[in-house]
Amino acid sequence: MAGYVLMFLLAAAIVMAFAGAAKARRTADAVPGKTHSRPIYHGLNAAIWTGIPAFVFLLLWLFLQNTVIDHLVLSAYPGVEAMDASARSIAISEVRQIVAGNIFKQPTPEALAAADHLRSLQAISGWVIATVAFASAAIGAFLAWRFVGKRARARHSVERAVSIFMLLSSLAAIITTIGIVTSLVFEAMRFFSMVPVQEFLFGLRWEPQIALRADQVAGQGAFGVIPVIFGTVVISLIAMLVAVPTGIYSAIYLTEYSPARFRAVVKPLLEILAGIPTVVYGFFAVLTVAPAVRDLGTAIGIPAEPNSALAAGLVMGVMIIPFISSLSDDAFAAVPRALRDGSLALGATKGETIKKVLLPAALPGIIGGVLLALSRAIGETMIVVMAAGLIATMTLNPFASVTTVTVQIVTLLIGDAEFDNPKTLAAFALGLVLFVITLGLNLIALRTVRRFREKY
Amino acid sequence: MNMMAETTTEAKQVQPMSEPSFKMLGRNVSVHYGAKQALFNVNLAVRQNTVTALIGPSGCGKSTFLRCLNRMNDTIDNCRVSGEITLDGQDIYDAAIDVVELRARVGMVFQKPNPFPKSIYENVAYGPRIHGLARSRADLDQIVETSLQKAGLWSEVKDRLNEPGTGLSGGQQQRLCIARAVAVSPEVILMDEPCSALDPIATARVEELIHELRSNFTIVIVTHSMQQAARVSQRTAMFHLGNLVEENDTDKIFTNPDEQRTQDYIMGRFG
Ligand SMILES: Nc1ncnc2c1ncn2[C@@H]1O[C@H](COP(=O)(O)OP(=O)(O)OP(=O)(O)O)[C@@H](O)[C@H]1O
Ligand SMILES: [Mg+2]
Fold first, then answer.
1. Does residue A78 sit within a domain?
2. pLDDT tens, B213-265?
């Protein structure tokens, strides 16, 4: 039903667009004097008034109808007062299955009655949609039609509609973020009702293997986040040690020293590096870098584990080089030529000019690139899932195996996830921690950038 | 690197000795941008402690010639300079000359004020720092103060040396750039239309300054304003289509030039 209504609305809007424009043209020709809005605006205006209110209603209705219908069906279900939340959701999904025609076992008479109830409600809902949408389109079309006139300000009306649409588009990202954070916080709260916050934040042991059933033999479980964060920090640090100097030096070389032909080849290549799927980097880390690191460890007499922090960090560093180099490159290129000339004309060498004039002027852009890279490193999942370890150990030895926040989130959610025990819910708490860390990083970044900003 | 001096055979035949009062001397200077020739065999002398004005219609090569004098053309990829330019009798395009040292001796002020995005103090201290001219912080403070004084900016900025140079007015910025150039104690200062972005009052201030600087420095200034050339310079060189039309005492150029083209340009008949 909703589909037909949608098609009807579209057709009505198009018809009204042409009709409105035609009427506007007629009135413009009939009366002498200056017209306010061109016919196309009257057409668009008519289309908007005809289609949009009905469309918004349709969206809202579709969004809410299932919840409302479920509620109505359940409240009429015999014995509903005795059911708890999960029994209710089982009941309603059974009813929906019956309506959809998937019957696995002989349904109870209550369920069949409820299914009939559901069907009738859905039919009513369909008719409500059709009637209201039609009425709304008709009223809108009538108003817009009457509105068309010599001095009518259709252009203003259309522009306002467009600007509202743009406002909503820009809000979409914000609203989505708020939604994600809210659900994260909500689930994390459930986790914290089982594991105390201070134990999670300051605990030094991370052993999330707990018994799921009473008869299982397993550890008590410990949810101290520190060792996990420690692993993330160590790997990110190694990655940044690789990527920051390499990225900045490559940007300096490409903008200031390289011959044009070299730049023309290397710059696109660097950007291709950014397009390699991280899972491919993961292969590279496991198959090539990790054995090499182990050999290196053996050679210098440090026992290296197969999943060393160094291997994951090195590969991750290579992965984020393009972010830093590309953004730094842009930052250097954006420094006006007059500043370079001013410095060179004072007898500064190229190196001095880069160090004392270009670098400070480009610093905000560079910091932006570094922080983007850092949040990529902290949030990066695939490489560490493949190349880092699973056991949370607190060590600074780069040849040892460490785990990261992202790896733990993945392992906690893999398998039979039940969202009512601390093991699974811990993933949300970890996600929240990750979010807070990157948010903090960005805030620090903004402040640093503002402090060091050299305006030109 | 992309442009070593091509000392032509003609240039070799000219006597290498220059008159002592000539600070810089250009002989047979030709400049190409790629295939396009912008200067044709220019011969021009710049006298010590004198303000030399370069005038001529737009695109005639004034800036190009000016930029040859401190080898700023080196920074332009497809630019080629030939002929000979000397500073105190020494060929500045010679391989023995370090371009960094040359630019410390021949400073430059640009058309648009281009202070660094640093504090006023750091702007002036920039040159002395990289050339190691100050032994102590007190030395550096002294250099900054005298440079700003010479540029006539000290009284306006002495209480806010730590504020950004970019926060000054256009005229103040240009005087800051002059102070910055003066701070490395150059022998010659090149100015490319230094007042074109300034209002009349700031212009008058800079002109006054040029007048005072003459006792310590040799100055070459490019200008589109005939009045300015007449007011600040002692010698004037007229360029047209990449050629030096004539070069003489400013009084002579503006009252009784030898060349008809100069007369026409000064009277505003072309350009
Ligand atoms: N970087 C460059 N690349 C190519 N051609 C250039 C370049 N700079 C200048 N030219 C050309 O060289 C000629 C002389 O330019 P120049 O800038 O010296 O003129 P100008 O006398 O300073 O003019 P204006 O008074 O407008 O500043 C012009 O024809 C110009 O197009
Ligand atoms: Mg010029």
1. yes
2. 899 899 999 999 999 999 999 999 999 999 999 999 999 999 999 999 999 99
A140 with A248, same domain: the answer is no
Q: Is A211 inside any structural domain?
A: no
Using CA atoms, how far residue A159 sits from A47, A139, A170, in Å, is 13, 21, 17
The pLDDT confidence band at residue A214, using thresholds 50, 70 and 90, is low
Q: What are phi and psi of B128, to 5 degrees?
A: -55, -35
Chain B, 125-184: which have a CB under 8 Å from a chain A CB?
126-127, 130-131, 164, 166, 177, 180-181, 184
Question: CB B130 to CB A454 under 8 A?
Answer: no
What band does A456 get if pLDDT is binned at 50, 70 and 90? low
Q: DSSP for A114-160?
A: HHHHHHHHHHHHHHHHHHHHHHHHHHHHHHHHHH--SS--HHHHHHH
Confirm whether A217 is domain-assigned: no
| Contact criterion met (CB < 8 Å) for B103 and A347 | yes
Domain assignment of residue A96, given as a range: 2-186
Angstrom CA distances, A351 to A140, B48, B180, B230, stand at 68, 32, 19, 41
Q: In whole angstroms, give the CA distance from residue B112 to residue A334.
A: 17
Nearest CA distance, B7 vs chain A (angstrom): 24
Hey, are the CB atoms on A345 and B126 less than 8 Å from each other? no
Write out pLDDT tens, residues A2-28.
788 889 999 999 999 999 999 988 888
Q: Which of A340, A345, A361 shows the shortest C-beta gap to B117? A: A361
